[in-house]
Amino acid sequence: MDGDHDLSAAAYALGALEGKERSAFLRKLEASEALQEEVQLWQNRLAQLESFTEMVEPDSSDWHAVSRQLGFTTSGTRSIHEHEAIWIHFEPGVDIKYLQVDPVSAARTALLRMEPGCSVSSHPHDQTEHCVVLQGDVTLDQHRLSRGDLHIAPAGTLHSEIHSEGGCLLLLHWEPKTT
Questions:
Q1: Residue 61 within a domain
Q2: pLDDT bucket at 64, cuts 50 / 70 / 90
Q3: Contacts of 23 (CB under 8 A, 6+ apart)
Q4: Has residue 73 been placed in a domain?
Q5: Of 37, 48, 164, 170, which residue has the fewest beta carbons closer than 10 angstroms?
Q6: Same domain, 118 and 84
């Protein structure tokens, strides 16, 4: 199993894949016995940890130490450097790199890279998604966008196929989920 599949299988087993990422992974999972085995291995590894853990509220000094290790400043800001995140295979010719994920609100920020001629399948949005084209071109719901353009897909909407003729690099941000 290659590193991308191993990482995707781990993310799936942890419950960290949502929306279109989860849908794309499930399509791959259905078609690949090797990927199914990898997910099962991760689920077994994680299940073993459950008997050794209990819920504990962290001490505030512990939280401050963790915050410093994660790169938060005393003002609460944070910088994420390019090398701190990895590209994950999403669909053929399409990779995603999560720069920030808030496990509580499900807000996240990512880069999406599409090779020329590649597409992302139709998918629903359970969160409002902001998409800024950093490089190249992309067509979203019959809107052809290029460098500097912004597309907003409100929660509850559906994207038809997303396609890039010349390839692109997109900055995506999903707003926090509302209950």
A1: no
A2: low
A3: 121, 123
A4: no
A5: 48
A6: yes
